[in-house]
Every structure is written in C-alpha cells, then in structure tokens.
Amino acid sequence: MAANVETYITKIEELDKKGSGKAIVWRDTGEVNPKKLKLNIPQTLVGETVKVTVENPERKWAIVAADEIIEEHPERVEPPCPHFDRCGGCVWQHWSYTGQLEEKTNHVKKVIAQEGFDPSLVAHAIGMNEEWHYRNKMEFTFSKDGSLGLHEQGNFRKVIPLETCLIAGNDMVDATMEVVKWTKEHCLQGYDKDTHEGLLRHLMVRQSFTTGEMMLGIFATESPSGPLTTAVEDLVSRITTMYPQVKSLLWLENRDWADRTQSENTHVLAGRDFIYDEMLGYRYRLWFDTFFQTNPIQAQKLVELALEMAQPTKDDKMIDLFCGVGTFSLPFADKVGSLAGIEIVEASIESAKRNAKDNDVTNTYFLAKDARRGIDEVLETFGIPNLLLLDPPRSGAGGKVMRRIGRAQPDKIVYVSCNPDTFATDIKELEPFGYKLKQVQPVDLFPHTIHVELVALMSRE
Ligand SMILES: C[S@@+](CC[C@H](N)C(=O)[O-])C[C@H]1O[C@@H](n2cnc3c(N)ncnc32)[C@H](O)[C@@H]1O
C-alpha cells in the first residue's frame, strides 16, 4: 500500500542538539483542531523557509531532508566536501565559519544564563585561521568491499566510502587512500558487523602536526601472518616507501564483537609502537590507544588560556583533575611548586609519568583513580591545593566531585570543558562555597561540528 505523503512549506525556528533545524507544522486533517507535527530537518539554518515532503505524517515527529530551501539564511554557504550530504563527520559545512562561531558563542552564553550566571562574562569564541584539515587523528571503518569511510548521518550501521576528508590532516588522507588501493588490489574483505565475518575492521591514522610522525593501525580479525603474509609484506613495502613519515605501522588483532578500536594482539609491522608528538615544547609519546587532543592547534590555545587565567607561581600547590597523559600537567608543573594529576585510565597515567620523565619534569605525582575517590586520596596525601584545574569528559565532573572541590577551597579553579551544558551545572555547585565565575573563553576545536570547548576561571571572593 502506498504511504501517505504530504508536502509542507515551513520555517526553521531553532536548532536541535545535533545541529539540525527544527520546525513545526500544523496539519489540517479535517478534524476540529489541526494536528501538530514536529520536524527535524538536517542541513537547515534558523530563519530559513524550506519545503519538505513527509511520509506517514500522522506521526508526531519526523526527521526529513529539505526538498528545497525557499528562503536562505544570509550565512548559508556551499559545502565544500563531496560527502557532506551523507557523511556524519561534520554537520555544519553549509554554514559560514563566522556564523558557526557566533552560534557557538551564543550557545555558551545561553547555557550559563540558564544557570543564573552573567552571559556577558563569555568572550567571543576563538576560531581557527585555517578551519580545514585540523584533526591529527581519524578512525575510519572498512566497508565490506574494502573501502574506508565514516558512518552515515543518523545510521551507525552504514559506512560512506570516502574519497577525501576535509577535516583530517592532508597526509593522513593520502595514506588512507593508499590503504584502500591496497585492500582492493589484494581483494581483502571488510568486516560485516551483522554476520561477524570478514577481515578488516578499522583504520586508525594519527599524525603529529609538529614532529610530522605518523601512525597507521589496521584493526583486523586475523593475524598478519599465514595466508596474509604476501599482502601484508606489500602493505609494509608501499607505506614505508611512499610515506617515510610513518614511524609506526601496526596490525591490531581484534576479534571482539564490540565495534571498538581495541587490540588483543598488537603487531608492529614497521617502526615502533608509538609516535612522538610535541606541544608547547613538551614531547609526548602516543600509542594507538592514547587519548591526545585531536585538534593540536586549538588545544595549544586551551593550555595557553588556562595558564593565562591561572597565573601559576612557584608558591602554588596544584591538582590537575582528569589529567589524561598530562597535556596541561606538564606546562603547569614547570610553573608551580608541585602538581598532582588524577585520571581514571591507568595507561594514560603511566603515559603521564613517562611524559614527565621524558621532559625532565620532576615535581609531579600522578594517581590512576576515579576522580570521585582520587580527589580524597590526593587531598590526604598531597595536601590542600590553592590551584585546581579540571578537564572532565563530556558528561562533566558531577555534583559530588564539584562539592569536594568546593570544600577543599582552592583559591582559583580553572575549568576546561568540552560540554558547556555540563560545565554550567557543574560550576553551579561551587556557588555555595563562595566561588564567583570570572571569565569564560569558548574555543572552537571542531569547526563544522556542533561542538565547542571553553576555558573558565572561578575564584573565591
Ligand atoms: C577531556 S579528557 C582530558 C584529558 C587531558 N586533560 C588532556 O587534555 O589530554 C577527560 C579525561 O578524563 C578521564 N576520565 C573520565 N572519567 C573519569 C573519572 N571518573 N575519573 C577520572 N578521570 C576520568 C578520561 O580518561 C580523559 O582522559
């Protein structure tokens, strides 16, 4: 039976959490009251008038693509990437970069105002001078025919084969395309998530923008020896010849049913099992599973801003909560008396310790623990800090951790956030402890996406 289809002309009222336009249409169904239909329309902007066709409009809500943009937003631009229509990588390529930064700034203002803070404390978001090819790490998924790509918008099961990627570093894209050529020439099959059959799962590619060193890691369901020996030898030969900057070529066995980039058995096909990266003159070793900021140019600005806001001195005793591999810890440790870092991932803490050693930083103490428990332990063993920096994951630090920080009464708190919503609710917890929000600086680490980071300063009155 043919589906009921209706066409409407409607106006975009606001954006949803995924960056799509939201509109409401009132359908005249012949009944006394018209029926409300909520629409989420990707790739549209607030104020635009659009034409949409909806199948089965009797439902209350639908996600639909616009058939036509009848009245365009003045900041609408032509998306430069050929995959923009389908790829879920970046959703705002149709919006000028100035417009994106304006939206990100306003979003931070809005969420902190909702918690009762003064939005005029929020400065305009710091954007990039060159807002393409900014990522130093990508994870592509193999499709069944051996192509590599990213997941389709709104459909995690489908992979869009890519010919290019405008947010990944240029060398990284070239090397990725060479891997695709290799899979096709050797007729190697991608892994099928439904049947759990096939060889190749993901390609992880990361490159330091400072040292130039690159890592390529192929996640596969079989060992690289035996029947795969000839193909793998060819891969090593072409990658090492064509890309001498690849200092780590890895084959990572992963037979797990979970769709994650993890390894049960790591084979170093060429070079070492890590690459060197540098930020602000500090050297970091990155393994395939080490978290490191993925936009190094803007991440450096985050560290510089945190230093500027905190104004650390040798008299300071500091805690770096959610410290990862020490991206903030090392530059701060050189300026404060002593620093304790807390982080849940043990491998990151091991890495932070090694990074401190490699950089001759000797006044640090790192603890691998959940922040909720680690903070008590550090307060007991290390003492009360007068400076505290926290950089939690998107879910935020949570009330318990924030109240513990409040009770410890450091003079200054620098909050680095990758989610303004959880930032706003977290800092609300500090108010009863006498803290005032002084400054909020949004920084754009992910142009053409909805994400925005920020650095903020709170201090005791
Ligand atoms: C946004 S990253 C920041 C890492 C680091 N500051 C950096 O810039 O590289 C957040 C970090 O918090 C860690 N993390 C997540 N949940 C945690 C928890 N409950 N306790 C401690 N650390 C946690 C993650 O492993 C991750 O390294």
UniProtKB/TrEMBL annotation:
GO BP terms in the entry: methylation
Q: Which domain of life is it from?
A: Bacteria
EC number(s)?
Answer: 2.1.1.190
Does the UniProt entry include the keyword Methyltransferase? yes
From the UniProt record, which GO molecular function terms apply?
methyltransferase activity
Binding of S-adenosyl-L-methionine occurs at Q293, F322, E343, D391
Q: Which InterPro entries match?
A: MeTrfase_TrmA_AS, MeTrfase_TrmA_CS, NA-bd_OB-fold, SAM-dependent_MTases_sf, U5_MeTrfase_fam
- Which residues does UniProt mark as catalytic? C418, C418 (nucleophile)
Q: Is Lyase among this UniProt entry's keywords?
A: no
Alphabetized UniProt keyword annotations: Methyltransferase, S-adenosyl-L-methionine, Transferase
Concerning its family, UniProt says:
Belongs to the class I-like SAM-binding methyltransferase superfamily. RNA M5U methyltransferase family.
**What NCBIfam families does UniProt report for this protein, alphabetically?**
rumA
This protein's name: 23S rRNA (Uracil(1939)-C(5))-methyltransferase RlmD
**Source species of the chain:** Gracilibacillus marinus
